[in-house]
Amino acid sequence: MRRLFRLKGDRPVATQARAIATRKGIVDAAASVFVRHGYAGASISEIADEAGITKGAVYFHFRSKELLARAVVDAQDELATQVRERSVAGSPSAVAMLVAMVRELGVLMRDDVVARASMRLAVEVPTGELEDVGGTYEAWIGPTEHVIGQAVAEGDLRAGLDAAALARFLVAAFTGMQTVSVATSQLEDLMPRLREMWAIVLPGIVAPGREHIIPGLLRRA
Amino acid sequence: MRRLFRLKGDRPVATQARAIATRKGIVDAAASVFVRHGYAGASISEIADEAGITKGAVYFHFRSKELLARAVVDAQDELATQVRERSVAGSPSAVAMLVAMVRELGVLMRDDVVARASMRLAVEVPTGELEDVGGTYEAWIGPTEHVIGQAVAEGDLRAGLDAAALARFLVAAFTGMQTVSVATSQLEDLMPRLREMWAIVLPGIVAPGREHIIPGLLRRA
């Protein structure tokens, strides 16, 4: 309370739009700092410096580091929805949509600091400090399972395929490829690694007699 | 220097064996704390409490948190070598050895806090605070590629399989399954998830005409 009170003086006489822009600037700055130092290593001071505002202004918008992390994860959820919509758009089949989803998510990780921070938070904070960030995984498993089910119904993926198991596996494999790619190449090799995954996995999940679709899918990967 | 000097008084008049046991106790305690709070969130105080010794005694053996993390990673490297040796022992073929290696590594992660800490450090510290922990991945990719090459030579895996790509993929997928399993079930579902992975991947990598080996391999997974 004391903190909030003291900081009120910092509040700019801002329009709603300016407040929203400032808030977004803080979330982006927090994302950069989470990517650099992780959750435990991030400080509000460094986030304020990164955003080019005072610590007080940060606290005006977010009362704690936990709320900042939550805002990063929420911002990523919106990006993820966009990824899924973009994947639906250009895809002639459900299996093409599945491959496109993984590619678009990879592009997002490579290019967007909020997405990268969100993944680092999910990977790093499984120990209760930031509760239910593990929900990030569940949020991907459901839609992925749905698309796999469609691809089975369309006859492109094997009948009898366990869609839930494949969805869990793809989400976990993506997480691991992202993690290893960050550690070994700063994400530079993520896209070729994702293509390698499909080259390994597709021959085992495509329906017998549909093997001819594999090269086209790999070109979309 | 000052710190080391001040702490000399804490040094027990210990035999070599006792010093080694103390050192191991500190490494185990550090592993527990790294698992709980990650690298950035771990403090020497908590590690000392966990080990039941003074902060001074910790500093006598390890001058910094970084050296402690390094010791955890090194201890895991030894365990990993044991995993590989155990996997060779009971395996009638190279492909069986590959499946056994993944299983034994899963068991290690589930049961051994040093292994779990080492994985968390590798996943969490890709940003230069602890250099080349990413080497943990490379340390697994080489031996895995070797076993895959043997399995191709033995005719169980497809000729023309890219052994390096499959090795990179398996190491990354394992990393991701471990990460997701920690976040969603405290590692309780890791072993069934690893079996799911093989059920998905094996049909695409087993050599044509060798599909009958899959059920036996899944029983070893």
TrEMBL record, chains A, B:
Keyword set, alphabetical order: DNA-binding, Transcription, Transcription regulation
Record InterPro entries: ArpA-like, CprB_TetR_C, DNA-bd_HTH_TetR-type_CS, Homeodomain-like_sf, HTH_TetR, Tet_transcr_reg_TetR-rel_C_sf
Transmembrane intervals: none
Boundaries of every HTH tetR-type domain copy: 20-80
Start-end of DNA-binding region: 43-62
The organism's place on the tree of life at top rank: Bacteria
Entry protein name: TetR/AcrR family transcriptional regulator
